[in-house]
Automatic annotation (TrEMBL):
SUPFAM superfamilies according to UniProt: HIT-like
InterPro entries according to UniProt: Histidine_triad_CS (IPR019808), Histidine_triad_HIT (IPR001310), HIT-like (IPR011146), HIT-like_sf (IPR036265)
One MF annotation (Gene Ontology) recorded for this entry: catalytic activity
Gene3D superfamilies, A to Z: HIT-like
Positions occupied by motif Histidine triad motif: 100-104
Protein name as catalogued: Histidine triad (HIT) family protein
Transmembrane segments: none
HIT domain boundaries: 7-116
Organism field: Saccharopolyspora phatthalungensis
Active site feature: 102 (tele-amp-histidine intermediate)
Amino acid sequence: MSDMDSLFLRIIAREIPADVVHENDQVIAIRDINPQAPTHVLVVPKKRYRNVAELAAADPGLLAELIAVAHNIAEREGIADSGYRLLFNTNSDAGQTIFHVHLHLLGGEPLGGLTGGPIRG
């Protein structure tokens, strides 16, 4: 596992500081350090899976937990009614650069189409 791959594990272990907006036994949610929208939160399972396909095959309940946590954060951030986007990047061609699955929660402004290029991470 490279340093980049272990980034989230190091955040979970509190070796690297992060702006934590939610945490429970299974999931941590942190603000993205390079936000692509006014609200940009990463929802990360504490157990490492390479990508969302691996997570879905191994633990569909944990996948559902990521989505439920993202929705709860959207409600707390005041963007649930106006709308938000949930995004998983899966593997390199989709822009995944950290190979520990994480869900991007984006909102707080009209997001438009997906033609603006990939959201890295």
